Structures are given as structure tokens and as C-alpha cells.
## 1
Amino acid sequence: MKASTKKPSAVQKKQNFGVYMKRYWQLYVLLFLPMLYLLIFKYVPMIYIQIAFKKYSIVESVWNMPWAGNNGFEYFIKAFNNKDFINALRNTLMLNLLDLVIGFPAPIIFALILNELVFKKFKRVIQTVAYMPHFLSWVIIYGLALQIFAPSSGLVNMVLNNFGIEAIPFLNDSKHWVATYIFLGVWQNFGWGSIVYLAAIAGINSELYEAASVDGCGRFKKMWHITLPGIKPTIVVLLVMNLGNILGSGFDRPFAMQNNLVMDVAEVISTFVYKNGIQGLQFSLTTAVGFFQSVICVIFLLLANWISRRLGERGIW
Amino acid sequence: MIKSKSAKFGDWIFVVICVIVGLICVLPMINLLARSMSSTDALVRREVYLWPKGINFDAYAMVLGDVKYIKAFFWTVFLTVVCTLVSLTMTTLCAYPLIFQDLKGRTTFNIIITITMFFNAGTIPNYLLMKSLNLLNNPLVLIIPASLSVYNMIIMRSFFYGIPDSLRESAEIDGASYFRILWSIYVPLSKPVFATLALFYAVGRWNGYSDALMYMNNKDYYPLQLLLYNILNNINSIEVATQEGFSAPGLSESLKAAIVMFSTVPILCVYPWLQKYFIHGVTMGAVKE
């Protein structure tokens, strides 16, 4: 430990490797496990991507499997001729777009509303309550939805009936299922999503608001001309991330909420891969689908980032 | 005068909006609680709104009396505690060395880490990896593969950056090793970020079910959420009906409500106390990368 008594300086960098290691070896020891983890669990799986271009065989190692037909693209062609996959692709796009259009602005609007509250204690209580849904798993949220949206004895339909409206099959009919799916997404995320925007609002110079008041600006004018421009960089960063994920699909939410009656709109790529791959053992086909999805995600992310920088915003890097 | 009066009125409009939003968040939980304590008759007669009718605790007695749930509950608690400890350790091990600007290979490490954030090999390659590592149906598969989240690592690293370098440098002058600087300076000063990330990891493990669904066939190791998923979807309902002597397939609605309640309560008891920490954590993760 003698070496570590020296202060780091530019001179030290020029010293030889041995002295450097004597000083820093501990940091490499600390990094060993995390790097091993990333290597095994994030990089080794990439080796298996070649299955997308090969005929999967259970006896052979990945390297020795025979190449698939059509220059290795057999399974990609098969996927795009597969009606179920096209359906899953369409649903993924549709649900993500709806999430983007309806779910993305919700936390922003909620943050703007919270910012207008003058009672600080009340604001804290509302915040705590609004963060609650984020801590529920999708299985639990689905369990809740089954209970409150139950066709005959559920709370919502009982209230609707009292107003003379017929019961709505919230979870058992394709159209209503999509609406419920999007609504529950908003319900789960609007509070949690608002945290980032609230922090951004807190960073806005308060003199701007005072100056605006002097000029006679009302509440909404201040919101429009000061608050929104103030949080624009945050909005853009999160929008870019969301656009990059337009073809991505989580697994927990759609899988938990699916049922046989709504499969035509509820099957998304991730659940398609699970059912046809892990359950159906069509490894080559589903690896091809997953690889296609990952590549599209990266392309979209780069594209969205490029556009936002073109428009003069910061982007995500 | 008129101006200030109208401003007050505006304030109340926002209060009303917030009350409605708050109710939308809370009412489903209250309804669930009411249903779990109501008699099946009252549920069928459609009398249960927000207050239980025919109050009884039979459903809870059934849940608490069933070895299957109790076992799954304690297994999930154990799993959550172990996962949180392992993940926090891994995250610290990864974040701490990377704050040293003159660490050789730092850029390489950062690139290795960043790539994993944007490119994922996919479900099937991950599944085949678990298979070749002999992790399928092994309880370790619920702990190891999720033991490091790069997003959480970035949050911790930016917290570490906020700790003044001078503290570290004076410790170096006093002859402290890097292990010791981590243990005696960074760990004690980073309680807020540990609290935040512990919450994130714990919630992730408590709420996660897809890894168990994909990699675990042994029912003894099912976490609570997967058990709940199977119950809600009446999977193996015939098996349940014959084993436990139910006349109808599936479980009664109040029992389902009680089970949902039972698997939600632990988290709902914890998160409000950690609010000021996690707000800080979320903000750090998003604002500076």
C-alpha cells in the first residue's frame, strides 16, 4: 500500500505499468465481478444470435449448426410470411404508438398541475398516492382490473349500471381491451413519470416567473412561456428514448393482461417469441424475430437522436 | 383585489383535479380490500362498493392457512432480500472504480457497459445461455441474471461523483487503500443512494415473474407473483379443485381479492418512507448520464 500514499499527478501516468498496477490493482479486482457478469449475461448471448441464420439443432453446438436456406435469411422470410408474426408486429406498433400519444404527455400534464398547487402538505400527499401504482406488478394490476372491471359485480360496471348504462366488457372485447391496456399504462406511470419533470421545473430560474408577473402574465401564460420551454430539454430526451423503443415491447405488461378473447390485439412480439420459442421450440424463427426487433430498436434510437440534434436539441448523448 | 381573488379560485380548481386523480389511484385498492372482506353472497348480489358487506375474514384465513401461499410468500421475501444485497454489492463494485478519472481502460469499460443498454441479444439467446449454464430450474436463475442493472449503476456513479474528491485524496495521503476508501468513505456517505437502489432492486424482484415463467419449472421455487398469475388465470384449476375439494373450478372472487391484497401489502408499507430518497434517485438517473 506504500504506492498509494503518492498523490495522482500527470507525471505518474508516464511511469511504468508495474508502478501503475501496484497502485490501482484493487480497482481492477473490484471491477472483475461486474465485468464478468456483463460478459457472460450480456455478451455471450450474442453468440446465439447466429441461430437466426442457422437451422437449430439440439445436438450440435451453435458453431456447427448448418446454415439456413436463402443465404441464411430463411427464417426472416418465414417470419414475414407468418400471419401471427405480422399480427404481433402490427399490435406492438399500435400499442406503443397509443402509449406514446396518450401515455407520454400524461406525466408532463400532471407535473404542471402539481406545480400549480399552493398547499405544500396536500401536494406531498397527492404525490405519494400518485407514485403508488408504479410499485404494483402487472400481475397485481391485472388482478385489480379483473376485480373492478368485472362484467357483473365489478365496481365500474355497477356504477355504470346505476346510471342506466349497459355493462362494458373492459377486458374481454378487443376494442375495449386496447383502451383498458392503455389506460392502465397511464395509471401506472403518470405519477412516477412526473418526478423527472418536477425536478426540471424546480430548476427553472424563479426570477423569470417574477418578471412575468410584473408584466401581467397569468397562470397559463407563465405555464406556456416559461415552464414548458424550461422543461423542453427533458421532454426531448425522454421522447427520443420513447421513440427508440417504438418497436420494443416489455413482456410483463402484455403477457399479464392477455386472455384468449382478445389475442388478435393483445399478442405482441415479446409474447409471440415466448410462445413460439420457449414453449413452441421454434428457436431459429424466434431468434430471428428477436434480432430483427433489437436491430430496429437501435436504428430508431439513433434516428430519433439524430433528428433531435438536427432540430437543435441536446439528444441523449 | 379582484386579481388575487380569481387566483385563489384557480388554485382550488387544481386541488379538485388532484383529488380526483388521487381517488382514481386509491379507489381500486379500497374496492379490492372491501371485496376481500365481503361474503360471496354480497359479491354475487352486487352490493359491494367501497365498504365490505357481510364482513368476514374467511378469505384471509384461507390464504394464511394454505401452506402453498405461505411458502411462496417467505420464499419471495428471502429471494428479495438476497437479490437486493447481491445487486447492491455488484452495483457498488461496478460504479466505484469508474469514478477514478485516471483509471486505465476506463473508456473501454464504459463502452462495454453502454452497449448493453442499447442492444439486447433477445429472449431466446438468453434462454439458451441459461440452458447451457445449467441454470434452468435452478433457484440461482432468479438471482444472478438480474444482479446488475446498468441504469442503477449510472445512478450510483453520479451519486459517487457528487462526493468531494478532496475526501478521497486526503484518505489516500493518509495511506488508505482503495478498498478502505470505498468501505470507510463512500459506503457510509452513500446511504441515500443505497436506500433508493435497494428499493428499486427489491421492487423489481418482488414484482418480477417473467424470469421464473421462462426459466423455472419447479413449482417449489415459484415466486409469489407467478403463483398469483397462475391463480388469476385459473391455471391448474382442475388440479386445485380436486386437491382442495372445491366444487367449482377456480377460486371464489373474494379469495382472489385477498390473495392480490396479500402480495401487494409489503411494498405498499415500504415505499412511502423512502419517498425523498427515490425522488432524488430518479432525478439523478435521468438528468445527468
Note: Chain B has two domains: 2-44, 62-287.
## 2
Amino acid sequence: MLLRLLRRVRENLFSTWYNTLLTVLAVWFLWVVLRGLFQWAVADAVWSGGADACQQARQLAQAEGRPWGACWTVIPENLKLLLTGTYPPGELWRIWVCVYVSACVVGVSAGVWRGLMRDVAIALGAAAILLLFLPFSWAERLWICGIACALWVPMGIGWLARSRIPRGVLIGSWLALPALIIWLIGGGGPLLRVESVHWGGLMLTFLVAFVGIVASFPLGVLLALGRQSTLPIVRWFSILYIEIVRGVPLITLIFMASLMLPLFLPGNIRIDQALRAMTAFTLFTAAYIAENVRGGLQAIPRGQIEAAQALGLSSWLTTFFIVLPQALRAVIPANVGQFISLFKDTSLVFVAALLDLFNMGRSILANPTWLGSDREVLLFIAFVYWLFTYTMAYLSRRLERILGVGER
Amino acid sequence: MSTASARIPFWRDVRVLRVSAQLLFVLVIVLIANWFYTNLQINLERTGIRFGFDFLWTTAGFDISEGIPFEPTDSYGYAFWVGVVNTLRVIGIGIVLATLVGLVAGIARLSSNWLVRQIAAVYIETIRNTPLVVQLFFWYTAVLLKLPRVDESIELPGPIYLSQRGLALPRPYATESFPWWGVVLAVGLLAALAVYIGRRISLARAQRPGFPALWAGGVFVLCAVGGWLVLPQAPLAWEIPTLGRFNFEGGWQLSPEFAALLAGLVVYTGAFIAEIVRGGILAVPKGQTEAARALGLRPLQVLRLVVIPQALRVIVPPLTSQYLNLAKNSSLAVAVGYPDLFNVANTIINQSGRAIEMVFLIMATYLTMSLLTSAFMNWYNRRVKLVER
């Protein structure tokens, strides 16, 4: 056993003289980086107390002439802002209900459908468990632990009752979920209205990404079909739209939406900043989705269309029942990649003066109390983004394998 | 057939349907555009803004922190041009460095050394999965602004000085003998050209592959080095930055904003390029290398004549879109306060209130840059493609 390990080590690390040199250099690099990181993030770090504890630790370190460590207390102290922005504290339960209801729906579908959905549920639950290692208070940890339970318990129930749950119920609950979430967050009816200026933090990040994904997909498919159309005017219009949008930075589109959209609408129609940003994200992502879908459309063998025509299907029927299902299936991985970058790009909403996760962090850093905690806050934010994008990327790879794309 | 088509009523005739569908489409587009235009007219009248580009010639009245010389008395149009030049500067340097970083990381990802492979994987996976603007902000506030003060700056070999005020690097400058060296270089270039053509002809006559470009390059380098040594004074000398009263003087100064933007763009785009390079190298089947070796090609020839042409075919198209992404992402300079074209245009809008005109200008500029870059890369792609068959 040990011998085999040693041989593996020699093969992989010390096979030639330059390989050995590379290994030594890499070990030295890791030693320097990891030691510095450990010293800063763990050994010298302040884990509890308010802003005062950090100030004291910093002054002490300065007096002794050594570098000071991280001040992690900035995260739990501002957690509410980072996650939900200035959402009224009395109404926070509504967000928790959103999270728990979504978790339950995902969990039950995971139990019934299994396959990739089960991986999603397990990964999300694992992500929630991972969150426990961050410096949260015990009450918050309990809530987070509840998310994992709300995913995994319904998954078990769904698996046990999979033959008794009708298909329509699950699909219906998926369709009803977005409306329920928007109603719960925005209010209306018996619930207190919460204006979109109070939506912020991670919640806003999710909302913008979600609306962008849902709204851009049909638009993108239409544009792709338009680009492949035999009608010249439709085709040229689609090409023009796609190329212009792809040729300019997203930030200019958000800027345009937030600044110029009101100019192009009648004075009595008022749309708030959040909706303007969502419009920009939708218009932007649609162009990229269109290019992905076009790839899928081009990959469909000509024989499929000819066979459909020979069977007497009209061009509409051919498009919707023969071409699109195959094309969309082939481009799912590419589109997931597009949605991952949409999720990352939501951090650009600062152009529209919105405070999502990243920009909430920026405004916290502008607060004199937390001056100098840039590394801590930014690393936390980066970690949250990484957690979600990496999970999505992992699931996309699984999906690719399940669909067998790229193996043909 | 002809009698059957004669009986088809016009509302089911494909030709009529095609034309009418397009007419309907145009009608809808025109109606929407008209609606937007009328609203715009009403809104502009109400706010009293007039549309036009003549404001570009009025005095800007603000300062730009870096770039080509600019005075607050210069015009808005010139201010915008300063921003364009600053953007081009970041894009140019960024593309070169990102390609190098991507190449190294992509090859490291395929290294036979386990540790090197893992380090490259961690780099690629963390950088690709976090937003660029967070990284830029991190580089700016958490790295560059946290560096020591100017009088305590970190000295790296070079000498390169790192401080809160950014980077100070040595800069080459031309001495008195530089024109003579230029003459030597021109002669060397001609000689190299002659050698290249001569080798091409003799190789073609002998009908075997060789390295005419390598020969020509060698001749040129020989001329350049010879000229450098023969001339009584070195044609180029280094201007070393020295610490003045407030900041470094002389040398090549990079502001912290520029350095943060460049570092962020290079590290981010480099991670994406690394994946492309890896994919390109993996896309060349092992059999190709083995077959080339069996045909008796030397390892260097295998790489140059078999692996690289095929890998480039896979690499170039996605690499183009990464370069375009880098160009577009340079607009995030606004997050760190580097005066690129978007940032300057933003200031102009705040001062003059000409939102529509400036947004139009911004978009037109980026579109031009994107189209030029993709035109160039398409041309290069066609050249690389020709190698295929």
C-alpha cells in the first residue's frame, strides 16, 4: 500500500529533473501562499464581537508591529443587509417562506423524478450544510439547517409516494412557484407592499437572475428561429439585433435601460429601477441564447425536416415538434453556461443604482465603522457567488453526460 | 401540377403568404418604433432637451486623471477621445498578457506533474466562477490600495516599485545612437527577407520541410545584437524611477486604477483562455502525433507541422470571443475609477445631460471595436484553416 503510494508520488511528482524542480517550486509557492493565508484568515483573525473588537485587535497588532488578521465579525454583523438589503425586518419571514417553499418543491420533485433533480436537491442541501461553517449565529445556523431538511425530507416523502403523486400537481406547483415568490416578496392583497427599492442583497441577485433566465429564453429561441428564417426581412432584423447586442458591453445596455427607457415610454408609465435592470438583462441574454440555439438548429440533419415534410407536417408543426425539441436538447449545456454567466453578471446592477449582494457589500465598506474590511467582505461575496456558480457548472456537466451531448 | 396550383386560393399561396408575413412584421416594427419616437419627442419637449451632437465642441470643464494630455478647457469630444485611447491601451496590453497567462495555465493544467495540475485547476475554477467586477474591486481596494505608502514601497527586482500610488517600472528610452541602430535594424530586416526567400526557394527545390522563418529570424537577431555591440553607445537605456518628494518620478508609472483593471482583466480572461488552450490541445488525437513520429518527423516538427496547426483550428474561434469579451469587459473600469471611454462618457452625461447622444456614441464605439477585432480574427482564422488541407 505504502509502496504503491510512494511509487505513485514518484511517477507524478519526481519523474524527471525538471519535474522535480517544478514540484519544489510549487510546494514553495503553496507554502508561502497558504501560510500567509492561514496566518491572516485563521490564526490572527477576530471571530466574535462587534466593530470595536476588530479595532482593538488592529491597534494591538499595530503596536506590536505585526500584520493584523482578518475581521470576520463584519459578515454576521451585516448579514441581513448582504442577504436581503433594506427589506423591512418585520417582513423577513416572507423570504424564509419563499426559500422553504422552493426547497420543498425541489425536494418532492427530486424524490419523484430522481435523475438530475435528485443531484440538484442533494447539492443544494450540501451547499446549505457548507454555509453552516461560515460565521453565523446559532439561530441562523438552525434556519439554514432547516433548508437542508426542507430539501431532503420532502425528497424522501416524494420518493416513497412517487406513484401516488399525479404528474400535473408537480408541474403545476413549479409553474405557480414564481408567481408565489413575486407575490410574497412584493406584497399586495393582505400582505404589506414592499417597494422594489427595498429589495436587495442576495435576494435581488436571485430575482434578477431568475427573471432574466425565464424571460430571455423564449425571446432567444424566437430570435434564433428568426435568424434561420427564409423570410429576408425577419432574418436581417434578427441578425441586426443579435450582432448589435453581442457587440456592446452589458453595462452599456443596463445604463441605457436605466437612463433612457423612461424617455421612450409615455410619461404615465413608470417602471422602477429593478424592472429596468431586468429588461436589460433579458434583452442581453436573449441574443446570446439565440446564438446557442442557432448552433443547435444547424446541427439538425436535413433529413429530419424532409422526413417531417414528407409525412405532411406543416412548417409550423415541423418547427415545434421536430426541429425545436432536438435543437433545444442539444444546446442545454451551452444555455446553462449562459445562465451561469448571467448569474455572475447580476453584480453589474450598480449601474442602475441597485444594491445586490456585491453592491450591498460595497456600501457596507463605505460605512466608516467597517473601514478597511474590504478583503473579508469581498472574499465572502466571492465565496457565495462561487458556491452557486460552481454548483451550476457541476450540474451542467452531469446534465451533459446524461444527455450524451458531445458523445456523438 | 400547374392546374393544381392554379386552383390554390391566394390566401394559401406560399408566395403571397411570405410577402404578407414580412409586410406584417415590418408594420409591427414600424408601429413600435413610431410609438417610441413619439414618446421620445414628447418627453424631450417636456424636459427641454434638444437632440444633436454640437455639444461635443463645448468646453468640458472637468479633468481626467490619466491618459494623453488633457486640460479642463478642452472639448467634450476630445475628452471622449482620451477615454477611447485609455480603453485601447488596456485592451492592447490586456490581450497580450491574458494570452500568455492563459497559455501557461492551460499547459500547466495538462502537466504530468500532479501538484502543478492541481494549482492550475484551482486557479481556473475559482476565477471563472466569481464575477469579474468583484475581482476588479478586490484587486483595487484589497490589494493595490492596501500596499504600503510611497516612501515605504516594496522593491522588486527590475527595479519595480509597488506602492499605494501604483506601479513604477523602468522605461527604455532612445539615446543618441538610436537612429544609427535603426538603420542597422532596417538592413537586418532586408537581409532577413532575402535569407527567407532564398531558403524558401532552395527548400522548395529540395522538396523538404524546413524552418525558413527561423533562419530569417536568426539573421535579424544577429544584426540587431551586432549593431548594439558595435555602436559606441547602447541605443536604448533604462530610465529608472526614483522617489521624488511626493511620488516616483521618471520611468513608467502605472496608476493603481490602471494596474487593478489590467490585473483583473488579465487574470479573469487568462483563466478562460487556459480552458480553451487545454481543449485545443486535447482535441488533437494521439494518433496524429504517433503517425507523425512514425513518418520520421522530429519532435519539434511534429509540434510545428502536426499538433499546432490542428490545435489552432480549434482554439482560434473561441479565443476570438474571449478577446472580444476582454474588450467589452474593459468597460467595468467604472467600478475602479479608471477613466476609460465608458467612465468618461458617464461624466459627460452627468455634466451635459446629453444621455441619448452619449449612449449612442458609446455603443457605436464598442460596436466598431468588436467588428474590427472579429474581422481581424476571422481573417486569421481563415489563414489557420487553410493549413488544414
Note: DSSP finds 18 helices and no strands in chain A.
